[in-house]
């Protein structure tokens, strides 16, 4: 069975409380041998670390502050917690961070402060940064461009931009995280991804969110990443095995895991 990597999954979510170990084992049985866990805020840290401890060869935690958790009066405290933990544990990456203008545009300025600070931490630690850019591709590209000094790398999670934006992200040293939205009937991703070399793409689920067809409306889980890979093989007119091989190699290289296999 071809190995796959889920580069973005919130498997510590309470939505998995009833069957978390079985869910992780289903993913492993489906060939998803590595699952990367982006942090949300202070409350998600311990559940995330508990999952990593339970599956140390398969689940890999990352540390960051989600833009949706950047709120006036509390974001500095949240960032202090992130900074403290970055110095006390080995992490696979920094994130998820970035800017979200879908839910709350009023916090844009403090979201920028939070994102810029996490960019600096990622560079200082030599870790990839995981970027949330919902309705904010241009704002995120501006900050990444400003912060890029040759040390910055990472993934634009749940990519949903134009071909021109995709090329700019790649030129800045980033990969595109592609998940279940690729399978949606009205998705514009197939048109964009036809023009993007596979070497710039990694797979993700964003579990428990954004389940691929035919699981829309239900809980997503890491095992379903095979459905994303199958759709990508159709879009790229490539064998499934080639999509699995290249996207897995991309993920291992991004997270510095090639030498640890």
Report what the structure shows:
- The structure is a single chain.
- The chain is of the alpha/beta class.
- It has a single domain (4-260), classed as Metal-dependent hydrolases (TIM Barrel), CATH 3.20.20.
- The protein contains nine helices and eight strands.
- The protein has helices spanning 20-29, 42-54, 75-86, 108-125, 137-147, 163-171, 189-193, 225-236, 240-254; strands at 4-6, 32-37, 59-61, 94-98, 129-132, 154-157, 174-178, 201-203.
- The chain has a five-stranded parallel β-sheet. Strands 1-2-3 form a three-stranded parallel β-sheet.
- α4 packs across α5 and α8 (225-236) packs across α9 (240-254).
- The longest helix has 18 residues, at 108-125.
- The model has no long low-confidence stretch (mean pLDDT 96).
Concise summary:
The protein is of the alpha/beta class and 261 residues long.
Keywords for this structure?
261 residues; alpha/beta; three-stranded parallel beta sheet
Counting structural domains, the number is: 1
The beta-strand count equals 8
Biggest sheet statistics: 5 strands, parallel
CATH superfamily: Metal-dependent hydrolases
CATH architecture: Alpha-Beta Barrel
SSE pattern: EHEHEHEHEHEHEHEHH
Rg result? 17 Å
Structural class: alpha/beta
Provide a count of the helices.
Answer: 9
Oligomer: single chain
Query: What's the arrangement of strands in the largest beta sheet?
Result: 4-5-6-7-8
Tell me the β content: 5-15%
In whole angstroms, the N-to-C terminal distance is 16 Å
Shape: globular
The average pLDDT value, as a whole number, equals: 96
CATH class: Alpha Beta
CATH topology, anyone?
TIM Barrel
Q: Helicity, in percent?
A: 40-55%
* Uncertain stretches of 5 or more adjacent residues: none
């Amino acid at each position: 069975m071809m190995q796959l990597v889920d580069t973005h999954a919130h498997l510590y979510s309470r939505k998995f409380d009833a069957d978390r170990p079985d869910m992780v084992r289903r993913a492993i049985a489906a060939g998803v041998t590595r699952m990367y866990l982006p942090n949300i805020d202070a409350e998600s840290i311990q559940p995330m670390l508990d999952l990593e401890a339970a599956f140390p060869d398969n689940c890999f935690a990352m540390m960051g502050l989600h833009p949706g958790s950047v709120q006036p009066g509390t974001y500095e405290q949240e960032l202090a917690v992130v900074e403290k933990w970055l110095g006390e544990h080995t992490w696979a990456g920094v994130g998820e961070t970035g800017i979200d203008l879908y839910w709350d545009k009023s916090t844009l300025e403090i979201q920028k402060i939070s994102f810029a600070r996490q960019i600096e931490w990622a560079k200082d630690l030599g870790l990839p940064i995981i970027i949330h850019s919902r309705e904010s591709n241009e704002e995120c590209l501006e900050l990444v461009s400003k912060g890029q000094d040759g040390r910055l790398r990472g993934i634009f999670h749940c990519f949903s931009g134009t071909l021109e934006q995709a090329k700019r992200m790649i030129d800045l040293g980033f990969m595109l995280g592609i998940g279940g939205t690729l399978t949606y009937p009205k998705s514009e991703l197939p048109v964009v991804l036809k023009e993007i070399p596979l070497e710039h793409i990694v797979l993700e689920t964003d579990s428990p969110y954004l389940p691929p067809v035919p699981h829309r409306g239900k809980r997503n889980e890491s095992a379903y990443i095979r459905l994303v890979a199958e759709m990508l093989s159709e879009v790229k007119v490539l064998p499934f095995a080639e999509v699995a091989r290249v996207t897995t190699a991309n993920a291992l290289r991004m997270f510095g895991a090639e030498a640890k296999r």
